[in-house]
Design goal:
By secondary structure, this protein is mostly beta strands. Helices cover 9% and strands 24% of the residues. The chain is built from five helices and 93 strands. The strands form 13 sheets. It has a 34-stranded parallel beta sheet, with no helix packed on it. A hairpin with a 2-residue loop joins β39 (433-434) and β40 (437-438). It is elongated, with a radius of gyration of 67 Å.
Length: 982
């Protein structure tokens, strides 16, 4: 190629070649983004674009001509297409430091050309890319104390920005201003921009921010000429400080240079500062990373992301933003907010205002919250709220105000003025401040819990107060579920709710109600109870004497001062319990459990157990409800009602009013003023009594009024004024009846007429009166079914009707309505008076039977022809013949005395002869009569036949007599005629 061609090529290349982009950036970290750049040109020969491989030689110079070559010579073979080529060039690191650079080019086409390279003159000045034009002041300053290829500093922004002498790897990207310049005084420090930002530590970073302004935190100092305080980091209200200002960090230094007029602080605050190695300030103003103590290594890696007045002065401490936050504990973090202080290692404040962590833990936000310090204060948490305080280790406050959790793993969920001071203690919420007084809840023992409400205290280990107010769970594992003024003082005691209740013994339970107290182990009150004026004491004498203090409730009829009766029989004069004479204003208590395992289900003024100071004397007593009931015996029970007393061991009163079960195992179902002095049951009624006695057990009164039972298994089913007082004696009902014999029974009846009792009595063993009035069964096993004025005095006797007297053993006397006595005369006699007659029927249709007519002395058999069938004639002669063949004997019954003789046939002979009757061992009267009548008929036939024959004979005899007479007359005539002949 001749010289002219080369020159033309050179010109074409020079004119056509363009530098597509500036080297991306020349920086300390060139390796990370690469040091190569692209050069593109157009090669023509004789105006014709070249195509093919060409050898190039590229060199880098610091001047357009002459000067010093920088870096290596690059000799790539490049493919040219239609005159266009692109070459990737890399002269190595640190070749571009802001000074001018020129590219020298030589070319040989085609590749491996013999003539050698052709230089392109002049050298091409490398121009910046468009984005690089935004950094006209970016410059490089060499380090004079480091020999590393990374040691050059980059300085941009205002001309007054500075990188200190001996600093290597320092960077100021921009920003700054006159007197508010940015500076880097330690190696590898970085200021991204902003104004008045200073990095005093190695590897420190301030991304930007910083500003100038009057400090509003010092406004309000005293206007008395005193020095105002220099508030470092921001104010905390209430902390002591000159000028009445509090400061984060606890230091308030008099500083006249920072104040204008007295009382008005005109402090010009600084920009951002990094004092310790690897510290970072992301932006904002007046932020500080590291401790300004002259030692750049004791608080490394501190970070303030932004905001105003933030201080991260602990190692690895972080302030995310906000204003006047201080993270001084190693590894501490403040996310944002204002005037927060994270003073303990690894502590965290998420945000809020004036929160402080003196111990390890986290405050998520809120106002004036504090995590307490101490050797064991770690992992504490305050989620938010105001003026909350947590400490002790893993303590937690979720929110609310003025709450305290200061024990290991203690927790306050929220509310106001709550305190969790026991290990694992919890106050879920509630509390408050009312009427000038704090009303917070307290959980002060191990694993104690308060769910909410106000003024509740869980002071026993593992105790719980669920809610309500003024509740106290003082026993270990005790529980108060709610209500007002309730106390669970015994271990494992439980109080469900209500007001002013107390479960003061171990395992005691009060379900609710008011003014209930359990004093004994395992005692239970389910509810009820209240305090009120006692109406039972109203009506005492108005004569100035002391009214009676009615203990346990009223019992009408029992003597007592003030005309009042009391359970327990004790009525004590008590002036302290009375108002004006005769009017008692006693305020009675709610329910009380005095003995172990006692239970009260509800109601008011009820007592389970005996108030004798011995909690084991009447255990397992139960009152289910009602008012004024007392179960004072062991295992005694009162189901309900009012003023009932179950004093016997195992005694039971189901309900009613003023009933007393005083004996062991006795039961009263209900009613009013019933009493069991002996063992047994009163189902109900009024003023019924079971009597006491050695043999009085299993007695029963079903109901009625003023009935009495005793003697053992005695029963009065009902009625009034009845008495069953012997073993297994029974009165079914009625009035004024008495069963006084063993196994005796009066079913009912009796009465009280005309001023006189008309009751029945069964007074001997197994004697019975079925009813009626004024009947008496006084013989053993005797019976009076009913009627009136009957007496069964003989053993096994029976008297019935009116004025029947069965005076003999085994006698049965029936008296009709006649007002006159009818009595037996001997043992085993049946005596009856039926002045209207007697009838016996042997069938349901009343068609067959016998009658004894009134006034009659014989029985009449019912024998209507229309009630008979299957008629057959009877042969009288045959019957007579059979009767004639039956032996007729005299004999006596074996059951009677031998002297008592009878005459007649045997039943078997009658049955054999005639085959009639129900059975062969008995002779039916109707059959005997029939046999007799048939025989009579047969006999009558014979008689009639004989009469006929006699008549015939008589007629014949008459004829004979007539003939004889005539003959005699003839003879007489003859004789007369012959007489003369004689």
């Amino acid at each position: 190629m001749d010289s002219e061609k080369r020159t033309k090529m050179h010109m074409r290349v020079t004119l056509a070649a363009t530098f597509s982009v500036l080297l991306v950036t020349v920086s300390v970290h060139a390796e990370a983004i690469g040091t190569s750049f692209t050069y593109q040109g157009d090669v023509r020969e004789g105006g014709t674009p070249v195509s093919g491989d060409c050898d190039f030689e590229f060199t880098l110079w610091d001047a357009a001509a002459g000067g010093m070559q920088i870096g290596p010579t690059l000799t790539p073979t490049v493919t040219v297409t239609d005159g266009v080529f692109t070459a990737d060039l890399d002269f190595g690191v640190d070749r571009f430091q802001g000074s001018p650079r020129f590219l020298g080019i030589q070319i040989c086409c085609p590749s491996a050309c013999a003539p050698g390279y052709t230089p392109l003159n002049p050298r091409i000045e490398l121009k910046p890319a468009p984005y690089a034009l935004s950094l006209p002041a970016l410059r490089n300053t060499p380090s004079d104390n480091l020999d590393s290829p990374h040691s050059h500093n980059v300085l941009g922004g205002h001309q007054d920005n500075s990188i200190g002498v001996g600093v290597g790897g320092g960077t100021i990207a921009g920003g700054g201003d006159t007197s508010l310049n940015n500076s880097v005084t330690r190696s590898f420090g970085t200021v991204g921009g902003g104004a008045d930002n200073d990095v005093f530590a190695a590897f420190g970073t301030i991304s930007g921010g910083g500003f100038v302004g009057t400090d509003p935190t010092c406004i309000g100092g005293p206007d008395d000429g005193n020095l105002c305080g220099s508030c470092v980091g921001g104010p905390i209200p209430g902390a002591p400080c000159p000028g009445e200002k509090g400061c984060l960090g606890g230091t308030c230094e008099p500083d006249p240079a920072r104040c204008g007029d007295p009382g008005v602080c005109s402090l010009v605050s600084p920009g951002n500062r990094v004092f310790d190695n690897f510290g970072t300030v992301g932006g904002g103003g007046r932020n500080q990373a590291g401790a300004d103590d002259g030692n750049a290594t004791n608080a490394p890696f501190a970070t303030v992301s932004g905001g105003e007045g933030g201080v991260a002065r602990g190692s690895h401490a972080t302030v995310g933003g906000g204003s006047f936050n201080v993270a001084s504990g190693n590894g501490s973090t403040i996310g944002g907010g204002t005037s927060n202080q994270a003073l303990a290692a690894s502590s965290t404040i998420g945000g809020g205002n004036q929160n402080t962590t003196n111990g390890g833990g986290t405050i998520a936000g809120g106002f004036l919250n504090v995590i307490l310090g101490g050797a064991s204060s770690f992992n504490n948490t305050i989620s938010g709220g105001q003026q909350n305080s947590a400490g002790g280790g893993s303590a937690t406050i979720s929110g609310g105000a003025d709450n305290t959790a200061n024990a290991l793993r203690s927790t306050v969920g929220g509310g106001t003025r709550n305190v969790a001071s026991g290990t694992n203690a919890v106050v879920a919420g509630g509390g408050g401040f009312f009427g000038g007084s704090p009303r917070g809840n307290t959980a002060s023992n191990t694993s104690s819990t308060v769910g909410g409400g106000s003024e509740n205290t869980a002071s026993g280990g593992f105790s719980t107060v669920s809610g309500g107010s003024l509740g106290t769970a003082g026993g270990s594992h005790s529980t108060v579920s709610g209500g007002n003024g309730n106390t669970a003082g015994g271990n494992f005691s439980s109080l469900g709710g209500g007001s002013t209740n107390a479960a003061d013994a171990n395992y005691a339970t009060v379900g609710g109600g008011g003014d209930n107290v359990v004093f004994a182990t395992f005692g239970t009150i389910s509810g009820g109870g209240f305090a009120t004026t006692d109406p039972t004491c109203i009506g005492g004498p108005n004569d100035g004497s002391l009214c009676g203090s009615c203990v346990g409730g009223p019992f009408p009829g029992a003597p007592c001062p003030g005309e009042k009766g009391c359970f327990g029989g004790v009525c004590e004069p008590d002036p302290a319990r009375c108002g004006a004479p005769g009017v008692c204003s006693l305020s009675t208590p709610g329910n009380r459990v005095y003995d172990d395992f006692g239970t009260i289900g509800g109601g008011s003024r009820n007592e389970a157990g005996s108030d004798d100071g011995n909690a084991a004397s009447s255990s397992f007593a139960t009152v289910s409800g009602g008012d004024g009931n007392v179960a004072s015996g062991t295992n005694a029970t009162v189901g309900g009602g009012s003023f009932n007393l179950a004093n016997g061991d195992g005694s039971t009163i189901c309900g009613g009013n003023a009933n007393q079960a005083l004996s062991g195992g006795s039961t009263i179902g209900g009613g009013t003023q019933n009493t069991t002095n002996g063992g047994g049951t009163i189902a109900g009624g009024f003023l019924n009594i079971i009597l006491a006695g050695a043999g009085s057990f299993n007695n029963t009164i079903g109901g009625g009024q003023e009935n009495t039972a005793g003697g053992g298994s005695a029963t009065v089913s009902g009625g009034s004024d009845n008495t069953a007082n012997a073993l297994r004696s029974t009165v079914g009902g009625g009035t004024q009846n008495v069963a006084s014999g063993a196994n005796s029974v009066v079913a009912g009846g009796g009465g009280f007429f005309g001023g006189s009792p008309r009751g029945n009595s069964a007074s001997n063993t197994s004697s019975t009166v079925g009813g009626g009035s004024e009947n008496a069964a006084s013989g053993s096993f005797s019976t009076v079914p009913g009627g009136g004025l009957n007496t069964a005095a003989g053993s096994y006797s029976l008297a019935a009707g009116r004025r029947a007297k069965a005076n003999n053993n085994g006698s049965f006397v029936w008296g009709d309505s006649t007002d006159a006595d009818i009595a037996s005369t001997t043992d085993n006699q049946f005596t009856a008076r039926a002045s209207g007659g007697v009838r016996f029927f042997s069938d349901a249709a009343l068609s067959t039977g016998v009658e004894l007519a009134a006034g009659s002395g014989s029985w009449t058999s019912v024998s209507d022809r229309n009630l008979k069938e299957n008629f057959l004639p009877v042969d009288g002669r045959a019957a007579l013949k059979k009767v004639a063949s039956i032996p007729i004997l005299t004999w006596n019954y074996m059951a009677q005395d031998d002297s008592i003789r009878h005459i007649g046939p045997m039943a078997q002979d009658i049955h054999a002869a005639f085959g009639v009757g129900e059975k062969e061992t008995a002779i039916s009267v109707v059959d005997a009569d029939g046999v007799a009548l048939a025989a009579i008929q047969g006999l009558n036939q014979i008689v009639e036949e004989k009469d006929s024959r006699i008549s015939e004979l008589e007629a014949e005899n008459a004829r004979i007599k007539d003939r004889l007479a005539r003959i005699e007359m003839l003879l007489a005539r003859i004789n007369d005629a012959d007489g003369g002949a004689k």
